[in-house]
Design goal:
By secondary structure, this protein is mainly alpha-helical. Helices cover 52% and strands 0% of the residues.
């Protein structure tokens, strides 16, 4: 999903809570909330999730787990 949405590996890691990458990632405070929200909006939610009655936060958590499994 993240690759299909054109998200960078760094953005994917920020959304899924992963760490790693080069030394440059340790500088700064990470992505701002607006950038994270815009990245989430680019993700296409799988049909199984889109038709459910989960809350927004539950959906985001499920997307995070799903993206993690794809990588």
């Amino acid at each position: 999903m993240a690759r299909d949405a054109g998200l960078s590996e760094e953005m994917h890691d920020a959304l899924t809570g992963h760490t790693g990458g080069g030394v440059g990632r340790s500088y700064g405070g990470g992505f701002r909330l607006r950038a994270l929200a815009e990245a989430v909006e680019k993700l296409q939610v799988p049909e199984a999730v889109a038709g459910s009655e989960m809350s927004y936060s539950e959906t985001l958590m499920l997307i995070s787990v799903y993206v993690h499994q794809l990588m």
